Amino acid sequence: MRIIMLGAPGAGKGTQAKKIAARYGIPHISTGDIFRANIKNGTELGKKAKTYMDQGLLVPDELTCDLVVDRIQQPDAEKGYVLDGFPRTIPQAECLTEALEKLGSKIDYAIDVDVPDSNIVNRMSGRRACVKCGATYHIVYAAPKQEGICDACGEKLILRDDDKPETVQKRLDVYHSQTQPLIDYYTKQGVLKSVDGTKDLDEVFAQITQILGA
Ligand code: AMP
Fold this sequence. Notes:
By secondary structure, the chain is of the alpha/beta class. The chain has helices at residues 13-24, 31-40, 44-53, 61-71, 90-103, 117-125, 165-179, 181-188, 201-212; strands spanning 2-6, 28-30, 81-84, 109-114, 127-130, 136-138, 157-158, 192-196. The protein has a single domain (2-115, 171-212), classed as 3-Layer(aba) Sandwich (Rossmann fold). The protein has a five-stranded parallel sheet with strand order 2-3-1-4-8, sandwiched between helices. A three-stranded antiparallel sheet has the order 6-5-7. Residues 9, 30-32, 35, 52-53, 57-59, 64, 85-88, 92, 162, 171 line the site of adenosine monophosphate (AMP).
């Protein structure tokens, strides 16, 4: 099962993507996580990506597309995968479609987690991420067991630079101008499914499993 998650930053698509990956036994591939790991490891890619990410801008397509096309050909992705945060532009979607055609494969579902802008800023300011393992929490909707500490690895939780309110509005503007057109793109491919992302986490997941089947 090859799945793409669509939705505004902060719509909860990352959380749902992880749940889908666990339920269906397929890898969760997050371009944001890949960039953050590169930043942490001080790679050239990380250095380049950071300048864009800190401003709420998209990393250029040419730095993104090859990375994903390579990742989806790894052995663990043979049965499928859930892409989270990619594609984010029409050229990225076209690059993916072309690569999949060459591989004789295709996307089965593009799931749009729909949340109005008015909910987003509030949600993002409550997000916290682990400095070490990248696990994400929300101070209201998905709180860690101990405030400010990661359940998974015991490290400190922080508000990521790109989740700060001044960056969030920029990311929303970028989403509307560059990513939202993908809804039409995947509707035309006949694979778009929308879920109501304003519901609580488990309800959204139930909507998704109903689409994907048991
Ligand atoms: P995310 O964790 O998916 O919200 O991504 C965090 C940031 O990483 C974004 O705001 C972008 O700067 C960058 N990023 C992640 N995925 C992509 C992508 N597919 N294309 C361009 N930039 C991306």
